[in-house]
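#structure-requests
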Amino acid sequence: MRTALVTGASSGIGRELARKLDSRGFSVILAARRADRLEELAAELENEATVITADLSDRRECLRLYEETRERRVSVLVNNAGFGMIGDFEKTDLDRELSMLDVNCAAVHILTKLYLKDMTARDKGFILNVGSSAGLMPGGPLMAAYYASKAYVVSLTQSVAEELRARGSRVGISVLCPGPVETEFNDVAECSFAVKGISADYCAEEGLRGLFGRRTVIVPDAGMKLASAAAKVAPRRVVLRTARMMQSKKLDR
């Protein structure tokens, strides 16, 4: 049976991705910090699932996760773990911000690199990095570090995808870039979306469809496709001011 690994599988998009991979016949390795939630999810899946608790803000934990799963010949890696923060950059908590960068950037970087080496050696496999529409924008005032972290994920994924394409590799890598999604993101970031989000179920389905369809950048909602396209042609100062207005609305809710 094929094996998939999903980080951040205890809730939201990660949980739905795990469910959908299970329904596609994968044995899923569920990784996150909250063991109780992972055990609940594992119990409902049709195929045998493995639970591994790990705090991916700790780089040693990223390495441990890889060492514990490398013999499973993971054929689908989903780097979903991540969180956000909101507030003026000078006022946000530095330690929490650095922890966010470790999860959103360093963990994605480490796990992508390690599993990619194994996949390219076998010349098969898929990696889905869960980014954000934020990563397609020039910046996000009041969520500066979060937007920057997701831009890192988008850039890394696109660059690796081109390297793989150039040498004719059959390994696929994609980045999922949703806008607002109805998950626990708001509670963690201590904000509320200014516009209605799509469901985590729909986001996960579109993410896997894009991954197995070998699309490098996957934007699951039409509104965000238009917004990201507009951001490419509009003056950067206009995009940044608009982004700040949108983030301000989150704080007001």
